Automatic annotation (TrEMBL):
Residues 34-51 have a biased composition (Polar residues). This is Ribulose bisphosphate carboxylase/oxygenase activase, chloroplastic. Activation of RuBisCO (ribulose-1,5-bisphosphate carboxylase/oxygenase; EC 4.1.1.39) involves the ATP-dependent carboxylation of the epsilon-amino group of lysine leading to a carbamate structure. It holds the Pfam family AAA. The keyword ATP-binding applies. InterPro entries: ATPase_AAA_core, P-loop_NTPase, RCA-like, RuBisCO_activase_AAA_helical. Residues 34-66 are annotated as: Disordered. Belongs to the RuBisCO activase family. Residues 164-308 form the ATPase AAA-type core domain.
Length: 427
């Protein structure tokens, strides 16, 4: 055993700024076994990595910063390679990566999956009550969703997109949402207003991001999901002399590409073999698909479903709507027969019109329209508003509201002020 002893004092040749009186330093010994070899010392020393370059030290056992993809590139490399990367939320989360960058400055949610925590999917907790789902509608939507989830098992070409089209106000979107709620589907929903932007390519990229978000719901939450685009013909359709923009073309091309390659979806990063997206169905609604680019709606890419509710469907849907008001099914039949050839939203507006008189009375109870702003927005915390009493629904009140709506519809069709204003242009 070798013994090494340090001196009690430092050498006398110290710089002048050191104190002259030095305290004695206690001696200590360092011993090593004669049987141990230098190689064994290197292996036993956990802090010595300089002599063993093959074994690199990880930052943390829970760290994902050094995780490699199939090409051997880590997360920071991939993050820098992504186009238009403005992700300032990349940081750390306490107990997951490193505690150094967490706290009140960055916040505890500033981690690499910050964007996925923003609720992009739609849940339907507001759909409380017993609603009627048309059997034909349910069969078509459910069959399309199931076929796409079983596409890898079926030896047949499955269209990725289901196009539900029909007249205005026939409940296409509402019926679809009821089916989502019944099947436990958490969809990602878009509208036609998001299909245009002042930046070229943004709507197409948004569709791909929303599609990948729906895929992440399947992968991470174990729930069925889909991408739904409402009123697609309003954003992509060609009406008269409307202009076809670059974004319209890119959106059409994006949807066609998704239909042809539903498991390889890029949002700007390099293609990777490990980047496989789960196939999720797409459902679009519209009024007239003949205005959309024909190759997009061909049978191989889009399955079409024309929704025109029958009288039985209308009676059942309206009865569920009026059931809580004490209106019987026979009375609903009489109302539907009184106003034939009307869309489903007509009967919803008819019920809403019956509330007008009671709301006008409630405005008078709070002091009139002059005090409306003070009472609704700037009242004191302990001040309560007068109790609003809903009107008692009767068949007579509903019929009166229906005739009022019919007069407004007929007045619009008879007047046609646009022709009066633009008669010189038509000539």
């Amino acid at each position: 055993m070798a013994l090494f002893r340090l001196p009690y004092s430092f050498p006398s040749t110290l710089p002048s700024f050191f104190p002259k009186i030095l305290l004695p330093v206690p001696s200590f010994s360092i011993s090593c076994s004669s049987k141990s070899t230098p190689n064994q010392l290197k292996n036993n020393d956990d802090n010595s990595n300089t002599d063993n370059p093959k074994k690199s030290k990880r930052l943390s056992e829970q760290s994902s910063w050094e995780a490699k993809d199939s090409e051997g590139r880590d997360y920071l490399y991939r993050l820098g390679k992504e186009a238009d990367n403005m992700n300032i939320a990349v940081g750390a989360r306490a107990g997951v990566i490193d505690d150094l960058f967490t706290g009140n400055f960055l916040g505890k949610d500033s981690d690499i999956v910050f964007d996925y925590r923003q609720k992009a999917t739609r849940s339907f907790e507001y759909l409380q009550g017993d609603y009627y789902i048309a059997p034909v509608f349910l069969d078509k939507v459910a069959c399309h969703i199931v076929k796409n989830y079983l596409a890898h098992l079926l030896n047949v070409k499955i269209p990725l997109i289901l196009g539900v089209w029909g007249g205005k106000g026939q409940g296409k979107t509402f019926q679809t949402e009821l089916i989502f709620q019944a099947m436990g589907i958490e969809p990602v929903i878009m509208s036609a207003g998001e299909l245009e932007s002042d930046r070229a390519g943004e709507p197409g990229k948004l569709i791909r991001e929303r599609y990948r978000t729906a895929s992440q719901v399947v992968q991470n939450q174990g729930k069925m999901s889909c991408l739904m685009i409402n009123d697609i013909d309003a954003g992509l359709g060609r009406f008269g002399n409307t202009q076809m923009t670059v974004n319209n073309q890119i959106v059409v091309g994006t949807l066609m590409n998704l239909s042809d390659n539903p498991t390889r979806v890029s949002i700007g990063q390099d293609w990777r073999e490990s980047d496989i997206t789960n196939r999720v169905p797409i459902i679009v609604t519209g009024n007239d698909f003949s205005t959309i680019y024909a190759p997009l709606i061909r049978d191989g890419r889009m399955e079409k479903f024309y929704w025109q509710p029958t009288k039985e469907d209308i009676v059942n849907i309206v009865h569920r709507m009026y059931e809580k008001d004490g209106i019987s099914k026979d009375e609903v039949v009489s109302i539907v027969e009184t106003f034939p050839n009307q869309a489903l939203d007509f009967y919803g507006a008819l019920r809403s019109r019956t509330y007008d008189r009671s709301i006008s009375k409630w405005i008078e109870d709070i002091g009139g329209i002059e005090n409306l702003g003070n009472k609704l927005l700037r009242r004191k915390k302990n001040e309560e508003l007068p109790v609003y009493t809903p009107p008692q629904q009767t068949v007579e009140a509903l019929l009166e509201s229906g005739y009022s709506l019919l007069r407004e519809q007929q007045l619009i069709m008879d007047t046609k002020l646009s022709k009066e204003y633009m008669k010189n242009i038509d000539d």
